[in-house]
Amino acid sequence: MGVASKKRASLHTLGCRLNQSETLLIQQSLKEKGYEIVPFGEKADLGIINTCTVTNLADSKCRQTIRQFIRTNPEAYTAVVGCYSQMGAKEISEIGGVDLIIGNQQKMDVLDFIGQEKNERPLIVRERISNEDFSVNFVGDSLVGQRANLKIQDGCSFICSFCIIPFARGASRSRDLENLVDEAKAKVNQGIRELVITGVNIGTYQSGADDLLVVLDRLNGIEGIDRIRISSIEPTTIPQELFAFMNDPNHALLPFFHIPLQSGCDKILREMRRRYTIQEYLEFLHLAHASVPDLYVGSDIMVGFPGETEEEFLETCNVFLDNPFDFCHVFSYSERKGTVAARRDDQVPIEERQRRSAYLRRLSSKKRHDFYSEYLGKTVRVLFENPKPDIWPAYTDNYIRVIVSKDQVGEENLANRCGLVRLNRLAADFVEGELVEMLD
Ligand code: SF4
Description:
The protein is α/β, with parallel strands linked by helices. It has helices spanning about 15-30, 55-70, 85-95, 110-115, 165-170, 175-190, 210-220, 240-245, 265-270, 280-290, 310-320, 350-375, 405-410, and strands spanning about 10-15, 35, 45-50, 75-80, 100, 125, 145-150, 155, 175, 195-200, 205, 210, 225-230, 255-260, 295-305, 325-330, 380-385, 390-395, 400-405, 420-425, 430-440. The strands form six sheets. The protein has a six-stranded parallel beta sheet, sandwiched between helices. A five-stranded mixed β-barrel has the order 17-18-19-21-20. It has a three-stranded parallel beta sheet with strand order 7-10-13. Helix 11 (about 310-320) runs parallel beside helix 12. The protein is globular, with a radius of gyration of 22 Å. The N and C termini lie far apart (about 50 Å). Bound molecules: iron/sulfur cluster (SF4). Iron/sulfur cluster binds next to helix 5. Iron/sulfur cluster binds near residues 160, 163 and 165.
């Protein structure tokens, strides 16, 4: 069955924000080649599944998704790309109906490998990941109307004991500065107002003499850019100069950090092979808060790491509660074959991991609630998103989720515009606000 004549393609992403942004880039190049993009689950002639291999469970979800696509589309050309392709090509090749398996090195060139006919056996393209800098040749669709990811870096050289990413994505390498600035300019010209800086370990960005500060300065110089938000950034890699950028009214960098803590216990941090102690982390956290008014800090915390006792878990809860964290994503530790942690024989029972995770999630909701409460009665700047049936959703600069009722606004179109909103009432995970005035 040929694919060139039909040109209906369907894409699906598993895993992280970086995968999402890479899928959007692939999607854009498919459109440029004349493909119609249809939702995953509908009939298509070409399927591209961008996979994740962060845990054994992620692998099994990938296999499920691939099978599901092939069941619905037995005649479609099926390409599997990304981290699981890099690490688990053999397992994927055992799924009947897969035509192409591409690891991370050639993933962005996937279209060059797609054939006209289904293959008897999958073609596997999986090279060692090069440690060269990279550039990207096309500009992806934005994720939503006003915000877009901008990938500046890939890979990681830190090798935490629970993490397979350094093997799946290779060592840290940085995108050429001019190349990423070109993409940013193109996105701003498309109407994007907020760029979210993404990568696996973005604080390690280094392209020649240019570091993250240079990237942010160059992006800030782009005519029309309103907001720059840094996505997750590793502790120990965050330059303190960012505080000044966040405080500068002429700099678009928002007062927002997402800094993975992982554990509040030094023993566990050592076993995770993280590169900081609790004291070092907290010193930075307090300094950041003292330096940047209205700063939001989110974090990632992993519970149930092998050998984690109840006391050590409670230590983590207390560090989270007693310090200025505003939210955390809670991850239950999940074994990943090939990592040091997965080989340990003191794994925490799964039900216990789930119990700890549910407990910490409740604490996290409380912290977010407390953070939102501090802003009740205040008037703050927001960027409005595309409308939902009765509301205009928006985020403040420091990441408070806000909604404004359409009843209050009337017919005016607020999408992709900035406005001042008074925050009036706390709901479960957002704040109801009242429009004071539009700023543009
Ligand atoms: S910093 Fe650690 S957890 Fe993050 S990608 Fe690198 S090895 Fe994995």
